[in-house]
Amino acid sequence: MSTFIQVVLRSLETGGVYALAALGIIIIFRTSNITHFAQGSMGMFNTYVVATLVAGLKLPLWMATVCGLCTAVLLGCLVDFFIIRRAKKVSPIAKQIITLGLIMVFVGLAPMFFGVDPLSLPRFIESGELNLGGAYLTYNGLFNILLGIILMVILFYVLQKTKMGIAIRTTASNEPVARLMGVPTKNVTLFAWALAACLGCLSGVMIAPTTSVTPNVMDSVQVNALIACVLGGFQTFYGPVLGAYIIAIGTNLLTLYVSSVWGGQLMYLLVLLFIVFRTQGLVGKKLIKKV
Amino acid sequence: MSKTHRAANTLPDQQALSITDLSIQFGGLKAVEGLSFYVKEKEIFGLIGPNGAGKTTAFNCITQFYHPDRGEVLFRCKNGDVVDLVGHPVHEIIRLGLVRTFQNVEVIKELSLIDNVLIGAHTDFKATIFEQALRLPRARREEREMRAKAEQALDFLGIADLKDTLAGGQPYGVLKKVEIARTLMCNPKLIILDEPAAGLNDSETAELAETIRQVRDVYHCTILLVEHDMRLVMNICDRICAISFGQFLACGTPEEIQKDKLVQEAYLGEEEPE
Amino acid sequence: MKKESNTVQPSATPVRSAPGVLKNPYIRYILFGVVICLLPLLANSGIMPSSFVVNLGSVLIYSIVALGLNLLLGYSGLISLGTAGFMGLGAYISGYLTDSVGTPFIVALLVAVIIAAFIGVLVGFVSLRVAGIYLAIATLCVSEILRKTFEELDQFTNGFSGLTASYPKLFGVSLSREMTFVLLAVVLVLVMMLTHNLVNGQMGRALHAMRGSEVAAQAMGIYLLKYRLIVFAIATAYAALGGALYMHFVKFSYPSIWTMMLSLNILAVVVIGGLRSIYGTVIGALIVFAVPDLLLKRIPVIGKIDGIAYIFTGVLIILVVMFYPNGVVGLCNDIKKLFTRGKKKGGASDV
Description:
The complex is a heterotrimer. By secondary structure, chain B is an alpha/beta fold. Chain B contains ten helices and ten strands. In chain C, helix 4 (51-75) packs antiparallel against helix 14 (278-294) and helix 6 runs antiparallel to helix 12.
């Protein structure tokens, strides 16, 4: 039982990381109609910024993270301003390809700016463990879980209640109409890209201490966040978050109880099967095809 | 499905298509309700109605893009058998001899006109993928024959000299002709034209009317026209069926339809009587 | 015959000035292959370093794989990020069979291609249900499953330490590096011809129609399921063929080779070279897989930057998609038109 709790707690931590990254993807998808494949890669780049500041300038982690968020905002805005905004007319598949190109650009830029040696990133809370009925959770893990949840609560509040949130949701629902109704859709997409980059950066800073900062640090987050979006469906903001937690918990439980070797693959297979039978994902309605 | 295998499907000799009690609803909205009409062999038949009358829905039910909740769509196939189309997979409809065009012309911009027309002959190719990959004699012969046939079709429509130019960038009128040429490739019994006059100017529409008549006379097929443009419909149709809000209003010759009270009401109630 | 050759290549601008024999596309493919086979001589004569052959050989392999992806992305408008996984599958199957089981090279190649094609059919089923944006992620998912399998199934793949193989043995003769290179060129030319036949026939038109509009395609009698399955089977078969050749040309395979980055590189080949162009695909492979190694790394300063290859390819993808959707081939055609504009006008007025 205690192992079960232990696994669930750990899954909540990784699930939170996936969920933050997935939220970035879904916000971009809803505002710019682009499947943002480079979410993880941009996060990786900004994580490098944080790690370099910590290692090179000996900044405390929180201050480095704030700096990382600043570069994330800058990067997000640059990408939107120079690329996405100018590619409005290309087909959805071509837009996907653009973000795939972005992955390559960031993976190439990272060693150019930060060198080829892997960097390490400390945890927010270095030591200490919490004992929950025999299951252990580091304080840092608890911090990550809480941070993820708090951020998501704030985000959903912003989306539901504030003016910006309404603007985002209107743009998401119908961009041309939103523009005609006076919603500053350009600012909305700019904001969305900056926000997505920040979420990517945070998920990077949260996952990096468990491994080392390399161009591959976000690979699993990138893939899992995308799959979470497919699982949760692209039609709502909370679907992907749900999907992210399900994937994290599902993978860990399958690894624990079914097969320590094949757990991950099994989870992916299940997700594939699921979307074959329910193409719209967990949450969302099937759209009627118009002829 | 079971209905299609019933041998009891019969149609009076002169009828090409008969629709009985066709109904479909989308989430409570009755898009088409109890619609019945028939189309005679070799006639040009018009299906008209104001905006949102359910013309396109009715027509999608005939071509099986939508599966009607109720009703029968009896059709006399190429080989003379009468089948109920309901339940047939969409891609098999063309094999039976029923082919359609599209409201907003569906041609492939990256292909030449003749290749676009050849898409219409898709079901007539018998060579397997392996034969095609290795260009074995049967694949080569079929390709040659179909190409000659496609040239004929383009020639018939008067655009043979454009056959090797790409479809992208051609004027709308030419693309409409390409679509018609494409329907001719499968030796159709019945061609359904979905708003063929949409996007054409007056002189082009007049030319189109002439083309439609010629297609009927030369290729000996029946034509069902789903149309908005009253001038075209009144000009070329032998008989017309008018519907409104998914329900049958009237059926008859153009003169009868013009005089029909119900039809007049349906159209005058609209903001745009066109 | 003259007519045949003219009609066979509707999408490419026919080379008008070429003499009669060159008009036949097959002869052009063969000539192209002969030219490729002569390239190792450059290395032997010392004009290029000897690693040139390995570089160029990989370009040929990736051209084969990219031709498959071009069928998907270019002709059918279906995006796939699973290419690397299927390449790896081909590499591991053929490597294991020749090395541990001792099957002949050709048999191993065939088995690899058939197994991959079968999995491709399964992906084709998935593609019928999850179109558009979902498909890229679904195929990425498949690729990830395959990559993890390469890592874990170490009795077959030797896990992280990697699998090695030797140059292929054909009819009892062990090939040298140069002869293997010629073999690659021969396979590439065959694949190009095969692809040429497929895309210019009934199947090619069906794929075009499906890309244009699934609804219209169905109305034209095209059975979506059939063509989705066929096109995915062919694409994965090409990928596995390329992977198997890779295994026996580069002679090793690690799970870390078959990652998403490789899939992206192959996607870049198709996008940069030109969608729906057979020669364009080869040119794209040359740009993506040879230019960074052979040219960029020799330029001072820029060549020293780590990751320059990725930046180069990534930037090219974005630029091509945004400003030149027809790729390098489109650029070539436009330049050609610029020069022959006067001539063409004269020709048109004759008609």
